[in-house]
Design goal:
8 helices, three-stranded antiparallel sheet, flat, Aldehyde Oxidoreductase, domain 3, single chain, 224 residues, alpha+beta
Length: 224
Amino acid sequence: MTANVGRPLRRREDFRFLTGRGRYVDDVKLPGTLHLAILRSPHAHAIITEVDLSAAKAAAGVRLALAGADLSGKIGNVKPNWVIPGTVVPDRPVLAVDRVRFVGECIALVVAETREAAYDALELIDVAYEVLPAVVEEGAAVGNGAPQLHETVPNNITTYFKTGGGDYAAAAHQGPGASLTPRQQPAHSDLPRDTCRSRGAGGRWRTDGLSAQSGAAHAPALDR
């Protein structure tokens, strides 16, 4: 391994991509494949007063159209795979039921015979919102009077995490009347990379369960 450090390595995969032989999730064609499209919220914070799926359900090629109320009590909430101990994890349904809390939250879904039919049907779904105040800056979100997103999360704070090092008391009293208030607003460095990473996967039901055929993240167990 050390012999390769600092040396250019010949890539093995370029030839098939440059000659049009790359294989992607979209190239996986399974018999009877249906396509799902998701309608997402244009608002950061709003009450959903109505979701009318009637026109979408009647559209050509549509097999299924669902809103949050259709799944309520039938499927579990979205759960984080890791949380800091003591974190309050608010309820987050797969499809929003009565309120949306961020731009892009899932409102409804359509399953159709083709991708085009699924996305065309999304445009037929009529959603009525009562828009609520929203904030986009962390400090404002935890400030006095900020809109509360979840009743179970007071002040919009899910986690209190304490850490430290060094001699804080000595640093705070180095000069007459000196005070020290450290503050850091960390950025999640993995998020920009994730927005560029495809999440597509192909799979089909068999008699012994779901078979994951292809996954762009190369994690078939997780895809399944």
